[in-house]
TrEMBL record:
It comes from Caballeronia ptereochthonis. GO terms for molecular function: oxidoreductase activity. Pfam families: adh_short. Keywords: Oxidoreductase. This is Short-chain dehydrogenase/reductase SDR. SUPFAM superfamilies: NAD(P)-binding Rossmann-fold domains (SSF51735). Belongs to the short-chain dehydrogenases/reductases (SDR) family.
Length: 250
């Protein structure tokens, strides 16, 4: 189904990184885009730049999210908001578990519950869940994050079953390392994380993820692209290790 057959989109975690890039790409396609995030200042900057409709809402604020989804019929939902805390389950706190389950999984379940019935009734819609390679592969630390993303992986497959017989498509995006500040938010030191995980590496940009999503949405209606695993070419499959290549001498 071409973009022209869709009118409205909701993107969570939209103020920076992949979320902002998705908003920008959708606006170029002519969609009415509702951008949801907590940071009102960055959302307003995004709105000025793209013409999106900003909503300074915590994705876990169920009352606010319910009001928004009751006011607007969304043809596209992109569940992009996500958090992670450092460390394995051995060092996890109650707060670590509650935060990640609430943002990464519970909020997604509620948004799907609130928007998918309308898509099914209209026989039109596309749900995009931003998951992670952590949903499929296990590597050191971040036990709770792995568990929540595995839940999104299972949910994405189940939604295809729930929508059987309807033209509602579901796509799961599983990025590896991308040039965003997620590692800095986990460690609490953005500059140090950039030096360790981003600077000097050949990584996908947020716009690359947005382009992949646009490709899935623009596919013919008879085509459902169920899963995309998007890694840096130099990232070890199934792990976080990414090779840093020195610039070639000229």
């Amino acid at each position: 189904m071409p973009f022209s057959d869709y009118k409205t989109a909701l993107v969570t975690g939209a103020s920076t990184g992949m979320g902002a890039a998705i908003v920008e790409r959708f606006r170029r396609e002519g969609l009415e885009v509702h951008a949801l995030a907590r940071n009102a200042e960055r959302l307003n900057e995004l709105a000025e730049r793209t013409g999106c409709i900003p909503h300074a809402i915590d994705v876990c604020d169920l009352d606010a999210v319910t009001r928004l989804t009751s006011e607007v019929e969304f043809d596209i939902l992109v569940n992009n908001a996500g958090v992670s805390t450092k460390g394995s389950i051995l060092s996890a706190t109650e707060g670590d578990i509650d935060l990640q389950v609430e943002v990464n999984l519970q909020a997604v379940l509620h948004l799907v519950r609130l928007t998918m019935p309308g898509m099914v009734a209209r026989d039109r819609g596309h749900i995009v869940n931003i998951s992670s390679i952590a949903a499929i592969y296990n590597f050191g630390g971040n036990s709770i994050y792995h568990a929540t993303k595995a839940g999104i992986h299972a949910l994405s497959r189940q939604l295809r079953v729930d929508a059987t017989g309807k033209r509602v498509r579901v796509t799961e995006i599983c990025p590896g390392r991308v040039a965003t500040d997620i590692f800095g938010h986990v460690s609490g030191n953005i500059e140090a994380a950039r030096k360790e995980f981003i600077d000097g590496f050949e990584l996908p940009q947020p716009s690359d993820i947005a382009d992949a999503i646009a490709f899935a949405i623009a596919a013919p209606l008879a085509v459902n692209i169920s899963n995309m695993e998007i890694l840096p070419t130099l990232q070890v499959p199934g792990g976080l290790t990414t090779i840093k290549r020195e610039p070639e001498a000229r």
